[in-house]
């Protein structure tokens, strides 16, 4: 009687609301009457109406009398609490929708099964768990954040065919671009005019990385990467919001003329120095730099309600997170260049999940599963 194709449609809809809804989950909802979709919607931008509300509102006037007898498919348990918006459960009850198919329960402590309970107590027929794994996957950042009390963590780097992040001394890397330094010329982030660039990745992977940045709440690099590459860590080759920049600067080596210190993008600097003045877009957090640093960073993001983090280097920062087991996904570009020596790429032992070709690069995606 229930058809997974409608839950699949919920997931498609949810995908479209993904980034704007953050830190809320993006939820897709579909109203089906007699094997016909009469309404559909997904969660609006953060603070706006939920998927169920948009779905019900989308029903055409001539179909509104069908709502009561239609089945509501929804990729996440309808909320039962007052947040920025009223409970979706109340709306469902008000519209006397009798049949519901729910993808998965909501891990948020204020909901966590209460929505389903409320609907069942109101006499609704609620089926839970259709395409559950896919529904969880579609809000993987939200689920990780609420279940593990930390952001969803993605590692990203580019390595040469023989497994190096950068070649021998005198050569610098930024944004995956390896620059052969010329006499007396300092590498400047993004200005490559007078250098001899050696690419690990290509224009396509570079654009893809900017798309990835636009999908995450925060981006992190270590001190050495800032000092060496002066990266901007923004979304220039794609559209969408810039992630909050997280910068490690234990002893205050990163002066104000580095791109990460400009005030254009919200930036949080983690340091051991005390009493540094916070500005609107530049916040300092004093933390202890010890072996627990990856967990400390995760806690800072949790406190700031940042659901996800993409870590783009350097080697030490990436390896520390790997060694702490604190990562969910790794996206590794492998280019055709052979360096022979230099800084070795981070290493982990994990099952290879997916392999894709991006022009002459391979994209290797690893998953870290419990
Ligand atoms: C739903 N449908 O589309 C979403 C839900 O502050 P609010 O009112 O926007 O509520 C946010 C919480 O509601 C969020 O933490 C999560 O538990 C749930 N999200 N629920 O029924 C939706 N986005
Ligand atoms: Zn809701």
TrEMBL record:
<keyword id="KW-0686">Riboflavin biosynthesis</keyword>
<feature type="binding site">
    <location>
        <position position="225"/>
    </location>
    <ligand>
        <name>NADP(+)</name>
    </ligand>
</feature>
<comment type="pathway">
    <text>Cofactor biosynthesis; riboflavin biosynthesis; 5-amino-6-(D-ribitylamino)uracil from GTP: step 2/4.</text>
</comment>
<feature type="binding site">
    <location>
        <position position="213"/>
    </location>
    <ligand>
        <name>substrate</name>
    </ligand>
</feature>
<keyword id="KW-0862">Zinc</keyword>
<keyword id="KW-0378">Hydrolase</keyword>
<feature type="binding site">
    <location>
        <position position="233"/>
    </location>
    <ligand>
        <name>substrate</name>
    </ligand>
</feature>
<feature type="binding site">
    <location>
        <position position="199"/>
    </location>
    <ligand>
        <name>NADP(+)</name>
    </ligand>
</feature>
<keyword id="KW-0560">Oxidoreductase</keyword>
<dbReference type="GO" id="GO:0008703">
    <property type="term" value="F:5-amino-6-(5-phosphoribosylamino)uracil reductase activity"/>
</dbReference>
<feature type="binding site">
    <location>
        <position position="236"/>
    </location>
    <ligand>
        <name>substrate</name>
    </ligand>
</feature>
<dbReference type="InterPro" id="IPR050765">
    <property type="entry name" value="Riboflavin_Biosynth_HTPR"/>
</dbReference>
<comment type="pathway">
    <text>Cofactor biosynthesis; riboflavin biosynthesis; 5-amino-6-(D-ribitylamino)uracil from GTP: step 3/4.</text>
</comment>
<feature type="binding site">
    <location>
        <position position="191"/>
    </location>
    <ligand>
        <name>substrate</name>
    </ligand>
</feature>
<comment type="similarity">
    <text>In the C-terminal section; belongs to the HTP reductase family.</text>
</comment>
<feature type="binding site">
    <location>
        <position position="229"/>
    </location>
    <ligand>
        <name>NADP(+)</name>
    </ligand>
</feature>
<feature type="binding site">
    <location>
        <position position="312"/>
    </location>
    <ligand>
        <name>substrate</name>
    </ligand>
</feature>
<keyword id="KW-0511">Multifunctional enzyme</keyword>
<comment type="similarity">
    <text>In the N-terminal section; belongs to the cytidine and deoxycytidylate deaminase family.</text>
</comment>
<dbReference type="GO" id="GO:0046872">
    <property type="term" value="F:metal ion binding"/>
</dbReference>
<dbReference type="InterPro" id="IPR024072">
    <property type="entry name" value="DHFR-like_dom_sf"/>
</dbReference>
<dbReference type="Pfam" id="PF00383">
    <property type="entry name" value="dCMP_cyt_deam_1"/>
</dbReference>
<dbReference type="InterPro" id="IPR002734">
    <property type="entry name" value="RibDG_C"/>
</dbReference>
<feature type="binding site">
    <location>
        <position position="158"/>
    </location>
    <ligand>
        <name>NADP(+)</name>
    </ligand>
</feature>
<feature type="binding site">
    <location>
        <position position="88"/>
    </location>
    <ligand>
        <name>Zn(2+)</name>
    </ligand>
</feature>
<feature type="binding site">
    <location>
        <position position="79"/>
    </location>
    <ligand>
        <name>Zn(2+)</name>
    </ligand>
</feature>
<dbReference type="InterPro" id="IPR016193">
    <property type="entry name" value="Cytidine_deaminase-like"/>
</dbReference>
<dbReference type="InterPro" id="IPR002125">
    <property type="entry name" value="CMP_dCMP_dom"/>
</dbReference>
<dbReference type="GO" id="GO:0008835">
    <property type="term" value="F:diaminohydroxyphosphoribosylaminopyrimidine deaminase activity"/>
</dbReference>
<keyword id="KW-0479">Metal-binding</keyword>
<protein>
    <recommendedName>
        <fullName>Riboflavin biosynthesis protein RibD</fullName>
        <ecNumber>3.5.4.26</ecNumber>
        <ecNumber>1.1.1.193</ecNumber>
    </recommendedName>
</protein>
<keyword id="KW-0521">NADP</keyword>
<feature type="active site" description="Proton donor">
    <location>
        <position position="52"/>
    </location>
</feature>
<comment type="function">
    <text>Converts 2,5-diamino-6-(ribosylamino)-4(3h)-pyrimidinone 5'-phosphate into 5-amino-6-(ribosylamino)-2,4(1h,3h)-pyrimidinedione 5'-phosphate.</text>
</comment>
<dbReference type="Pfam" id="PF01872">
    <property type="entry name" value="RibD_C"/>
</dbReference>
<feature type="binding site">
    <location>
        <position position="50"/>
    </location>
    <ligand>
        <name>Zn(2+)</name>
    </ligand>
</feature>
<dbReference type="InterPro" id="IPR004794">
    <property type="entry name" value="Eubact_RibD"/>
</dbReference>
<feature type="domain" description="CMP/dCMP-type deaminase">
    <location>
        <begin position="1"/>
        <end position="127"/>
    </location>
</feature>
<dbReference type="GO" id="GO:0009231">
    <property type="term" value="P:riboflavin biosynthetic process"/>
</dbReference>
